[in-house]
Specification:
Blueprint: H1 2-14, H2 16-47, H3 56-67, H4 69-86, H5 90-108, H6 111-119, H7 129-140, H8 142-160, H9 167-171
Length: about 180
């Protein structure tokens, strides 16, 4: 088993630029979801108005983007696990915790629950309002990690050049 992990981490290191770039891109997509959450759900609860009311098509796009959260959490977690594997870093550990609290949010309190609870559409729920706020706050824990992931990718591009992330694709080593 140890040999399998060694091979995986060796592959991960060889394609670090691609892995971080893909994770940063997928994570940046979550900003659309966070905007919707803030301008549609939170604004309605606090102000009683929608600052953003998406069309059916845009709502579908937001839902599809939200489904990218699962591979994103895995990909970005690997960045911080790789850091911790090399040396302990409290920031990496904290961001790994922030990231993996998202699983609780995804499977425990879904966005559908948040909308139903705050906006009052659909069936009622037995969960209290304070639990809804916790679910929303968990979602916002992504923001510092999104920033850090993008910062890491930009640093890679500055260090290795703008085509560094495409190197593995060019050499067909990714497969």
């Amino acid at each position: 088993m140890r040999k399998i992990f060694q091979k995986f981490w060796a592959w991960y290191e060889r394609h670090y630029a691609v892995n971080v770039g893909l994770a940063a891109f997928l994570f940046a997509l979550q900003l659309f979801h966070l905007y919707w959450l803030t301008a549609h759900v939170v604004a309605h609860r606090i102000l009683g108005i929608f600052l953003f009311e998406p069309s059916k098509l845009f709502e579908l796009i937001i839902i599809l983007v939200d489904y990218t959260e699962i591979p994103t959490l895995i990909g970005v977690s690997l960045i911080y696990l790789n850091n911790l594997r090399k040396r302990f870093d409290s920031k990496s550990l904290l961001y790994l915790i922030f990231l993996n609290l998202q699983w609780l949010h995804i499977f425990w309190i879904t966005d559908e629950f948040v909308v139903r609870r705050f906006i009052g559409t659909g069936a009622g729920t037995v969960f209290p309002v304070w639990l809804t706020w916790i679910a929303i706050l968990i979602d916002y824990l992504e923001l510092p990690v999104i920033y850090d992931t993008a910062r890491r990718f930009i640093a890679i591009l500055k260090e290795r050049g703008p085509l560094a992330s495409l190197g593995a694709f060019k050499e067909k080593q990714l497969l």
